[in-house]
Amino acid sequence: MEDNQKGNISNITYVILLGFGDLKEVGTALFLLFLSLYVVTLCGNLLLILAVQKSAHLHTPMYFFLCHLSCVDVGYTISIVPQLLREVVAGGVTISFTACVVQLYAFGALLTVECFLLAVMSYDRYLAICWPLRYSVLMDNRACVKLAVGSWIGGLLFLGSMLILFATLTFCGPHIIDHFFCDFFPLVKLSCTDTAVVERVAFASSFLSLSPFLWTLLSYSFIMFSILKISSSTGRYRAFSTCSSHLIVVFVFYGTMVVVYMTPASGKTLNLNKILSLLCTVLTTLLNPLVYSLRNKGIQIALKKGAKLHWLK
């Protein structure tokens, strides 16, 4: 029957996401785990945004971009985890093909926006450490807004161009995706037309999307060179501590993304690919607020003040 489905050229109106349906025996444990991660991620990122907005001493470019990064993480979480929870409970879900494409666009656009924002944040640290006397002039409010808006527009347009490429395909089944969300390559496999060109262009585009990472590496090479020129060990430690949190987030984010999207699919089992995708989409969004809150004294002070005011009321 599956061969007949592939042979008949008809539009797909719905898809079935299997998720982690093959792990039904631990479904309750997975549900509780993912629900906990969902709540902690949302609360962590929202608290981070609230702390920055309520604390005047955090109204700086670094925290401005950090708020945008938290907004991206909240978008990731809302677009994927609620559906993941349904899949764990039901052993899979059925959604419309349109909703599947919308999720693909939302996830891909947010992923690209985060790449741009991480590059912008590294540029901000470069100016702060390498050009401290001109920092306030080079990174004023107007420059911050332009860089943030440019990151969002860049991500939305990049994925828009990928969807134009995606629209050249004809989909006729099967309707089943052995994944927990509508990712690009699993969805392309549902096409009954030749996808070789589309997959090659998408793979090449994934390398082009690493250009923000190259910019990040370039910024930090200049930062490290400047830090090494500082004579006192205390000064070197203080300068490095201002960007250590960002470095951790950058390497975890790009490390998981490279493993998921730039290693040959033939060398990974379906379950391994799901787990790696889970690391890229769920755990990294939890990592950002934890790293910045645990390693950043400014955020810690703002959260403590907020908690103190709440109890006084």
UniProtKB/TrEMBL annotation:
The chain crosses the membrane at residues 29-51, 63-84, 104-123, 144-177, 243-263, 275-294. The keyword Disulfide bond applies. It is found in: Cell membrane. It holds the Pfam family 7tm_4. Its main location: membrane. One of its GO terms (molecular function) is G protein-coupled receptor activity. GO terms for cellular component: plasma membrane. Residues 44-292 form the G-protein coupled receptors family 1 profile domain. SUPFAM superfamilies: Family A G protein-coupled receptor-like. Keywords: Cell membrane, Disulfide bond, G-protein coupled receptor, Glycoprotein, Membrane, Olfaction, Receptor, Sensory transduction, Transducer, Transmembrane, Transmembrane helix. PROSITE patterns: G_PROTEIN_RECEP_F1_1 (PS00237), G_PROTEIN_RECEP_F1_2 (PS50262). Gene3D superfamilies: Rhodopsin 7-helix transmembrane proteins (1.20.1070.10). The keyword Acetylation does not apply. Belongs to the G-protein coupled receptor 1 family. This is Olfactory receptor.
